[in-house]
What does this fold into?
Amino acid sequence: MVPFLGITLALWVTIGAAIFTATEASAMRGLGGSVSSGLQTPSTTAPTTTPPTTTAATTASSTTATEEDDLPQIITRLKAGTKAVKGVALIVSKDGEEIGRSKTDAEGFAAVAVPGSGQYQVKLDPLTLPDGVTFEADAPKQLTPLVLGNNDRPVIFRLTTESEASTSGPGTAERLVGLFASGLRFGLVIALAAVGLSLIFGTTGLTNFAHGELLTFGAMAAWYLNSNSGGLGIPLLIATVGAVILGCAFGASYDVVVYRPLRRMGMPVVSQMVVSIGLALATRYTFSVIFGSNAKQFSDYAAQSPTVDLGIISLRPKDLVISAVALIALVAVGLFLQRSRLGTAIRAVSDNPSLAIASGINDAGVIRTVWALAGGLGALAGVMLGATEGVQWNMGQHVLLIMFAAVLLGGLGTTFGAMLGGIFVGVVSDMSTFWLDADLKIVVALATLVLVLLIKPSGVFGVRARKA
Amino acid sequence: MFALSLGSALIDGLRDSIAVVACVSALAGIGLNVQFGFAGLLNFGHIGSALVGAYGAAIVVNQGGPLWVGVIVGVVAAGVLGLLMGLPTLRLRADYLAIATISVAEILRVLANSARLQSVTGGPIGISNVADDFYSINPIPDGRYGWGSFSYNHNTLWAMLVGWSLVALASLFVWGLAHSPWGRLLKAVREDEEATRSLGKNVFAMKLQAFIAGSVIGGIAGIIFTFDGGFVKPDFFIAQTTFNWYLVVILGGAATIIGPTVGAIVYWFVISVFNSLLSQAIGRDGWWFISSTDVGAVRYVLVGVSIALLLVFRPEGLFGNKEEAVIGEH
It folds into this structure.
């Protein structure tokens, strides 16, 4: 048994890799990845369909840095509404001294090569902005991206056409409502992922530190299915379904390959938790090798689509879609747990494993189902997170502690507590940016988590654990 | 397929296994071992102690304070963090303690990175030129010492000397603790908290003392790290580093005196040999889908797999005692 476990455990890392390597031959050299490695000439990869974004990036770069392919570049793709903005000068400087400038092409692309790692100041020449195109009301006019190594650094300027700008002159109330809406969207996504985390704890007692990787896996799977530049070019909604199915398999593989053998070995759950950290590290950095270190966007929804006016607030359509899908999924999970036989079995195993087994419930099967469910929900959450914030190898790790906050707030092991906890944490942390810097958002979420642990470790909806 | 030079890889490994990075890991591991090995406390925020120690010293030196004040501030800050973090959290069960401590460490890192505190912490850029005073008290005359690949300038040698002396001192301190009545009581708390409490012992105070002691040693590791490099940056203090130290402790053997030190030496030897071989193998052009910038990432894959495999096959590490090495639920 033990040699088998060893081999499978070592192979486990490559399982995740294998799924991707099947599609990665062309996919590897995406927008950021191609130049970040700085090693391959584009011709050697020979993608079957030349992705439009890559073409644009390389033509832009060839005008600015033909001789120095190794240099990192600061790249941007300007859009106002859905239209690319052409002929705007992108100015890059360091310590007040201009390093280079480049005009955006018909696709809105511009790239400026920079000498190496460091903090740069990037702005647009306001004189070259076409009439009627302005910055969004709260958008910064100058950005200070940090370039690391040879990695290209994309920057985003939030532009809008004047007709849009005039409708969104945000007052205090509008801003608060807007933050509430975006917090709700983030909270719903966190709630989705947190339900899985909570179900796993309920049925197995494991605090899964590798849960963030389920999200990353889902987002990356969807990216490989969806992206026009490096993926299969499937529409995102269908790609999401594919990613969720793959996510279920990935979640179940956690159980089959790792945790079930560990449980049979009789390893204490706290040791299993430390193993989950090892797995998280191994998986996450395998993802980084495969996917590259830059954030990548889905091909659908990448554009800044026009907002939908809902009276008090105006939302981007993708935010509406995300919130709606997340809400439907949460309700579906709730109904599944409350109404279906399998859901009842899951709740029975959570509540009292011995009694559940004695009543004839197949606990191994229930746990497998829970892992698959958690994998699928995690994948869905990952896709949604990727649609708003880009797909990156460590995106799951970034929200891991926020998921813990959600789960602990509701009470570890309580499904509905985790849902409400997720929504609460999302709303509170997003709304805190009204008063605090945006980068302190995570501090608010984590402080909530610590406070809950200090005041009521069993959570708001939890019952006091029988065993301390 | 590749012209690999095992010799140069082994030399890289040996160099790193006695370098300052290794003694920083050893020190941090010794601190973690007091908490995790001897007291059974799953502190996932050990990097926070190093952060507080490093920033404490760097801020004082940066504001023009003398070196010794900086060191004292760093050590005291790490101790106070241990107290503040331990006081409310040590009553929690293992997984809650882990989540609470990793959260505190992350909060500290984000705050150090925040633009709001830039005037004090330097924000994302950090604080540089903090080691001048440390090297100005270097008694070793200028020059190069050693042979061939193991030749060091006077400053590097000074940092190594100080670092390894501190490792020896800390090991001696832990040896003293472990063989005192206090140390035996601490192990009793780890093995069976209820039984120890029923004997009238103050279990909570024992845990808190162990937690603070570990945090102080972690703070010293942060200070040495700062003086060696000459600057601090929030990026150094990511949560992963705590888990590197867990590997160091588990590899050497939890609840042993020499374990973390040997673990750190072996860890850095293996990592460097591996890095060196991998870099040679993939060269500048990359190999399969691994590019030259991915070497650092592959190293973390190795760390993660090692943690998982060690816990499955040899939880007692190199020198540990199998009975003592079970985490949780004795």
Summary: Chain B touches chain A through 56 residues (CB under 8 Å). The longest helix of chain B spans residues 203-229. The mean pLDDT of chain B is 88. The first strand of chain B starts at residue 144 and ends at 147.
